[in-house]
């Protein structure tokens, strides 16, 4: 969303997204859906007690995009594979890297776990903290056992 709607978001700090812009983004991303479907998305992803809270509107757009493009398709794929008798393993990476170049408001980004799987935190020159080095070691062990 940051790339597609650069005029609405700040990279390094939270963006206070006006309600009108929230609707603009929903209507653009889901332009191939019916008005009823888009209204259902808005209904589901609105904190109605704080509908005009720009910070929450920005967060809800992130949730919509994450759910639609990542979480839901992954869950569907896992469900179909399990129904066909395949073993399914799933993880959800929630650690926000201390050296992230992205604003804290963005949380954990898609693909952030890759640097841990490949041991980047073990490179002392990259200035990861000790907790991140431990996490990287654990993740490398888990992925190696899995493979």
TrEMBL record:
Q: Which UniProt keywords apply?
A: Disulfide bond, Glycoprotein, Hydrolase, Serine esterase
One MF term in the entry's GO annotations: acetylcholinesterase activity
Q: Where does the Carboxylesterase type B domain start and stop, copy by copy?
A: 25-147
User: Which reaction(s) are listed as its catalytic activity?
Assistant: acetylcholine + H2O = choline + acetate + H(+)
Extract one GO BP annotation from the record.
choline metabolic process
- Glycoprotein as UniProt keyword: yes
Q: Which GO terms describe its cellular component?
A: extracellular space; plasma membrane
Q: Which InterPro entries match?
A: AB_hydrolase_fold (IPR029058), AChE-related_enzymes (IPR050654), CarbesteraseB (IPR002018), Cholinesterase (IPR000997)
What the record says about family reads:
Belongs to the type-B carboxylesterase/lipase family.
Q: What is the designated name of this protein?
A: Esterase
What is the organism field in this record?
Answer: Oryctes borbonicus
High-level lineage: Eukaryota, Metazoa, Ecdysozoa, Arthropoda, Hexapoda
């Amino acid at each position: 969303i940051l790339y597609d709607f650069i005029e609405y978001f700040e990279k390094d700090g939270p963006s206070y997204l006006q309600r009108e812009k929230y609707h603009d983004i929903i209507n653009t991303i889901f332009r191939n859906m019916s008005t009823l479907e888009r209204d259902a998305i808005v209904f589901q992803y609105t904190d109605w007690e704080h509908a005009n809270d720009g910070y929450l509107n920005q967060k809800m757009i992130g949730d919509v995009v994450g759910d639609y493009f990542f979480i839901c398709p992954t869950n569907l794929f896992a469900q179909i594979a399990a129904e066909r008798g395949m073993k399914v393993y799933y993880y959800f990476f929630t650690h926000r890297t201390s050296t992230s170049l992205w604003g804290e408001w963005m949380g954990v980004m898609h693909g952030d776990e890759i640097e841990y799987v490949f041991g980047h935190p073990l490179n002392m020159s990259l200035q990861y903290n000790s907790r991140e080095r431990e996490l990287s070691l654990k993740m490398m062990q888990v992925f190696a056992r899995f493979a």
